[in-house]
Design brief:
The chain is of the alpha/beta class. It has five helices and five strands. The chain is 33% helix and 18% strand. Helix 1 (28-40) packs across helix 4 (100-111).
Length: 131
């Protein structure tokens, strides 16, 4: 009997690429999904979930990101220092003016796997604002 052997991709056989993505006038969720797929390497034909085959991503114009509907005045982001009474909440429009890169970071972190591999993926992400 002959059996087919399953070939698993090796980490050292993958050479990561660099992608530059312009976030101006793009929807937050759609941009985040596109970036996550590139970070994980799902756009490659030999994707395997437990092997880091991701690429590097640079996002520019983070302060020009859009979301739909009434979310700019209704969506809240919470930041806590784990001390009693230190829960802070920010609206999307306020956070966009003060720290626009955090909006994209939070969205992408939520879509990446939790654990060691997710942290490796996140360190391959670079987000920049324009003046």
């Amino acid at each position: 009997k002959r059996f087919m052997k399953t070939s698993f991709p090796k980490k050292n056989s993958h050479i990561p690429n660099w992608y530059i993505i312009d976030a101006s006038h793009k929807t937050l969720g759609r941009l985040s999904v596109e970036v996550c797929n590139i970070l994980k390497g799902k756009n490659l034909s030999y994707f395997y979930p437990s092997v880091d085959q991701g690429n590097f991503v640079i996002i520019i114009n983070a302060n020009k990101i859009n979301i739909s509907g009434k979310k700019p005045i209704q969506k809240k982001y919470y930041i806590s220092t784990q001390r009693p009474g230190h829960l802070k909440s920010f609206l999307f429009k306020d956070l966009k003016m003060k720290y626009p890169s955090r909006i994209i970071e939070q969205s992408i972190i939520g879509m990446l796997p939790k654990g060691v591999l997710g942290k490796k993926y996140f360190h391959k992400l670079f987000i920049y604002n324009t003046d």
